[in-house]
Amino acid sequence: MKLILNKIGDPYKMILEDTSGKTCIMDSGEQEMSPMQLLAGALVGCMSIDVLHILRKQKEDPSTYKVEIDAYKNPDVVPSPFEKIHLLFHVDKSVPLKKIERAINLSLDKYCSVRASLDKEIEISYEINQF
Q1: Are 80 and 111 in contact, with CB atoms under 8 Å apart?
Q2: Measured in whole angstroms, how far is the alpha carbon of residue 47 from the centre of its chain?
Q3: In angstroms, rounded to a whole number, what is the distance separating the alpha carbons of residues 36 and 87?
Q4: Which helix (H) or strand (E) holds 127?
Q5: d(CA 82, CA 123)
Q6: What is the pTM assigned to this prediction?
Q7: pLDDT average, residue stretch 107-115
Q8: For position 30, what pLDDT does the model report?
Q9: Phi, psi of 14, deg, nearest 5
Q10: Residue range 35-130, CATH number
Q11: What is the C-alpha to C-alpha distance for residues 77 and 125, in angstroms, rounded to an integer?
Q12: 1, 40, 71, 121: least buried by Cβ within 10 Å?
C-alpha cells in the first residue's frame, strides 16, 4: 500500500491520496474528520465488511445495518490513545441474533486487520439492537 499525504490548508488540513486517486481530507479542527475519528471509523468499517460478508455467506442480508461508535481516550495524557471503544450495532430482526453475534466475534477475534493493528489493551465492547 502506498499513500501520499499533502498539507492543503491551515493549520493542519491535509489530503491523503492513494495511487488510484482516492482521497480523504482530514484536519484537527471542526471542519473535517480528525485522524482519531478516521481510526475509529476504520475499525468499524473493517468490522462491518467482515460482519456483512459472514452474514451473506450464511444467506442473511440485513435490510438495515448501522453501527454507532463511542470511543473514549484520556485527554489528560499525551499521547492520548483510545482506551475504550463501544460499538452499538443496529440490525433488523430478520437476521438471527446468534448469527450477528458470531459474525461480530469472528471479526474482532480473527478477521479484522484494523483490530489486529490496534493495541490489545484497548477495551472493545459491543451491543446489538434489533428492531
Answers
A1: no
A2: 7
A3: 16
A4: strand 123-130
A5: 9
A6: 0.94
A7: 98
A8: 80
A9: -135, 155
A10: 3.30.300.20
A11: 22
A12: 1
